[in-house]
Specification:
alpha/beta; 7-stranded mixed sheet; 7 strands; 10 helices; disordered N terminus; Rossmann fold; binds S-adenosylmethionine
Length: 240
């Protein structure tokens, strides 16, 4: 490869981000239903558990990153009744769904460069989003910036808890099995290609141990909780 051609080519992280946006533009209409079918509705239980886990913190100002159609944010609204709940998403089609189905305020923006002032929130939540960071240090630094001291960052994600005894099964399930299942469910919904994003994003994302290190490097005290035999994990960070 010549110097010129390598300098004009987009970086893999940029290409990945573009691919993510294109996929979610196409997935916006079917995202929620496909998610429920592919997970046998356990994704909804996982979201409820996530919201209830921090019920005692009584956050008044919540930011949901990668809000999508508001699937996780609605649970926070129900259990926490915050004064402010803002959602950020990079895909306008997803924010249109949020606006149609909820009263949540949505902002278009990139999670790695949040269009939000510092120290504004008590809690940052995200559901099945963290796999889509292209630069994790940048992403969690941004969270740390917009949270007040003592504020909480909580991420619900597919299980990649490398200290769990079923970790090899989780890995197999979210890569090989989901690749096939994604085609079976995705093709009739007209989005077979987009469902391949799940195994790809799972493979790219850090494990729970790596995430805990990233969180501690960016100013958080981190812990990981698992449920459904480790098929889901919740990564919690308290801003120091
Ligand atoms: C898998 S969906 C999650 C939706 C919802 N939070 C849930 O509980 O199902 C991931 C969302 O993250 C958004 N997203 C991906 N990369 C992003 C980024 N860099 N900044 C902001 N949003 C992003 C996508 O547009 C998509 O709506």
């Amino acid at each position: 490869m010549t110097q010129e051609s390598s300098s004009t080519q987009a970086k893999p992280s940029k290409l990945y981000k573009t691919g993510v946006i294109q996929s979610f533009v196409r997935l916006a209409k079917t995202y929620e239903m496909a998610n429920h079918i592919m997970s046998f509705w356990t994704d909804e239980i996982a979201r409820y558990k996530t919201a209830r886990l921090v019920e005692k913190k009584k956050p008044r100002a919540i930011l949901d990153i990668g809000i999508g159609p508001g699937t996780l944010a609605r649970k926070f609204l129900k259990y926490h009744k915050p004064t402010i709940l803002v959602g950020v998403d990079i895909t306008i089609e997803m924010l249109k769904k949020t606006a149609k189905e909820t009263e949540i305020q949505g902002i278009i923006g990139d999670a790695e460069k949040l269009p939000i002032r510092g120290g504004a929130f008590d809690l940052i939540s995200s559901g099945f989003f963290l796999r889509h960071y292209t630069n994790y240090i940048k992403g969690y630094r941004e969270r740390s910036r917009v949270l007040r001291i003592g504020g909480i960052s909580i991420d619900l994600e597919l299980g990649k808890h490398d200290r769990h005894f079923l970790f090899p099964i989780h890995k197999w399930y979210f890569t090989r099995a989901m690749h096939i299942f994604g085609s079976v469910v995705g093709i009739p919904l007209g989005s077979g290609k987009e469902f391949k994003l799940l195994p790809l994003s799972y493979t790219r994302s850090p494990s729970s141990s790596q995430l805990e290190k990233i969180l501690s490097r960016t100013g958080f005290d981190a812990t990981t909780r698992v449920f459904f035999l480790g098929f889901y994990m919740i990564v919690i960070g308290k801003k120091q």
